Amino acid sequence: MRKRTLKYLSYFSIAVAIILGESCRKSPTDWNTSWTAPIGNGRITLEDILGNENLAVDEWGWYHLVLDTTISDFGWDDIVQIEDTTITKSYFMPFTLDVPPGVNIINQFQNESFLNTGSAALRKLYLKSGKLKYKLSNSINGQIQCTYELPTAFINGVPLQVNAVAYPGSASTPFVLEGELDLAGCQIDLSGPNGFSVNELKSHIVIQTDPNSNQDAQVNAGDQVKVEMELVDPVVSYAKGYFGMQTRTFDREIALLTGLKSGQAQFGGGFVQLDVANFIGMDAFFQLDSCRYFGVNGEQTDLVHPILGVNQTLSRATETSFGISPTHWLFDIGEANSNVIECVETLPNRMKMKAKATFNPFGNVNAYNDFIDTDHIVSVRMVTDIPLQMAFQEVVFESKIPLDFSDESVQQGRIKVRLTNAFPLQVEANVFVGGIAAIHQLGTVELPAAPLEAVTLAATPQSSSFEIQCNEWQMDELRQRRFLTVQWVLNTLDYPNLVGFRPGYYLDAVAVGSAEVNVMLGNE
C-alpha cells in the first residue's frame, strides 16, 4: 500500500487535493490537517457601554452623555371620571284601549341622571370609549316601538338614539329586548339651551304602537313598559367645566446607565434642564419633592437644589384653533446651584423622582371653563447634558460573545481569543465560559491605552491574544452555554485626569476554534 500525508491550511485546499487524488490515483490516500475558524466575535463601543440613546456628538466631534427623559404617564387621567350608572324608568298605561299601529303612547322630554360626573360640573364631555346598554320590557299585548334619544349627544354628528321594537307580552310574562350602543367618539353638550348650565342632559323618549304592525295593540290600564339604561366603562377623552380642587402625587423610577456594573468616575461639568409642561386648562401648583440617584456601587445620592419641596405656579394651558398650547416652567440645574455632577459621578443605573401637583388651587376662577384632554395632561422632561471629558477608575462593563461552532471546530479543546483596545483607556479583560464565576474563568488579558493621533485624535488599536486549552468540564459548559462573557475593567491614565471620547473608539473580541482533522480516501 502506498500512503502519502499532506497538510493543508483550508477546506479549499483539501477539496482540490481530493479532486486530484480521485482523478490521478487509485491507491488509498490519508491526510491529517489542522485548521482554525472564527467561532464568535463582538465589538463594544461607547454606545454599548453608556447606551446608544444616551449619546450625542457636538460640533467639535466630542461625545456628550445626554439623558433625555420625558414623563407624561402620571396616571392623572382620572381628574374627570364618569362612574358606571344604571337607571330604570317605568311607564304605566292609564287606560284600557285597543290602539292602532303608529300611535304615540308616551312622548316625553326629561332630565337624565345616568351621567354621574361626581364632583365635576361639566359643560362638555367627550368619550374615548364606553357602552350604553339598554333593556326594554313590554307587558302590553301588542307590538311596540321605543325611540330613546339624547338630542345633545352626538356620534359622527348624528344624535345618539336607540330604536327598539318589542313584541307582545303580558303582565306575567313581559317580552324583554336587550342591546347596546358603542359610545366611542361620543360628544355630549351639557351646557343646556342657554350654553351656561352644567351637567344638563335631556332625553326624549317616544313609545308608540309599532307602525309596521298589522294588528292593534290591546292596552290595559296598569300595563307597563320599562326602559333600563346602563352606562358601562365610560372613559373620558375631553371635558370642559369645573373639575374642583384636586391633588395628585407621582412616584416613578427612571432607568439611566443600566449597562455598568461598578466603578468610579469624574466628570468635567454638565447641567440638567427641567421642563414641566401643563396641557390642562387649569392653574396648578407643581412641586418636585425629591430626585434620588442610585449609584452603580449601591450608594444613594439625593439631588440638592432650592426648588425641591417648593410649589411652582403653572398657569393654565390655552385652546387654539391648532389645538392645546401648554404652559411651561423651565429651570436649569447645574454645578453652581446643585450637586448634580456629584449625583451623575455615582454612575447611576436609575433615579427615583417624587412630585405632586395641586390643580385649581384658587378655586373656580375660570368660571366653568377648565378643560382637559386626557391624552395630554402634564409632562416633566429632564435633560441631563454631560460632556464626556471624564475619568474612569475600575469601571466594570460586561459583554457576551455568542459562539457558533461544531464539536469538530474545537475538537482539541483549543480556543484562541484575540482582544483589541481602541479606547484611550487601560483595559483589563477577563474571559469566562458562560456566566461570570471564578470556576468559569478562562484567562485574563491587559491592554494598554490606545495612543491618539495628534491632529485627528484617531486611536491606534492595541491587540493581544491568548490560547485557551479547555478541560473536559469547560468544554461541556461551552457546548451547553454557547457563549463567552468578557468582563472589561476600564481605567483612564493618571486618574482623575480627564480624557475626551469621540466616535470610532471601540473594544473587539474574537474567538477562534482549532482542530485536527484526518481524511482518508481509497481502499488499502
Number of strands: 34
Oligomer: single chain
Mean of pLDDT: 85
The general outline is: elongated
Task: Pick out the low-confidence regions.
Answer: 1-35, 515-524
Computed Rg:
38 Å
Question: Strand count, sense and closure of the main sheet?
Answer: 10 strands, antiparallel
Describe the structure.
- With 524 residues, the chain is mainly beta.
- It has three domains: 38-51 and 391-521, Protein of unknown function (DUF4621), C-terminal domain (Hypothetical Protein Tm1070, Chain: A); 63-78 and 243-387; 85-235, Sandwich (Jelly Rolls).
- Helix content is 6%, strand content 54%.
- It is built from four helices and 34 strands.
- Strands 4, 6, 7, 8, 9, 10, 11, 12, 14 and 25 form a ten-stranded antiparallel sheet that branches. Strands 16, 27, 29, 30, 32 and 33 form a six-stranded antiparallel sheet that branches. The protein has a five-stranded antiparallel sheet with strand order 2-3-26-17-23.
Label this structure with key terms.
524 residues, mainly beta, Hypothetical Protein Tm1070, Chain: A, Jelly Rolls, 3 domains, ten-stranded antiparallel sheet, six-stranded antiparallel sheet, 4 helices, 6% helix, elongated, disordered N terminus, disordered C terminus
Question: Helices and strands in order, then pairings?
Answer:
Elements: H1 11-24, E1 29-45, H2 46-50, E2 55-57, E3 63-71, E4 85-92, E5 97-99, E6 104-111, E7 121-138, E8 144-155, E9 158-166, E10 175-182, E11 187-189, E12 202-209, E13 217-219, E14 224-242, E15 246-255, E16 260-267, E17 271-278, E18 284-294, E19 300-302, E20 312-314, E21 318-320, E22 323-325, E23 327-334, H3 340-344, E24 350-359, E25 370-373, E26 378-387, E27 389-402, E28 414-421, E29 426-433, E30 441-447, E31 462-469, H4 472-481, E32 483-491, E33 499-500, E34 506-521
Antiparallel strand pairs: 1-34, 2-3, 3-26, 4-14, 5-13, 6-12, 7-10, 7-11, 7-14, 8-9, 8-11, 8-12, 14-25, 15-24, 16-27, 17-23, 17-26, 18-19, 18-20, 18-24, 21-22, 27-32, 27-33, 28-31, 28-34, 29-30, 29-32
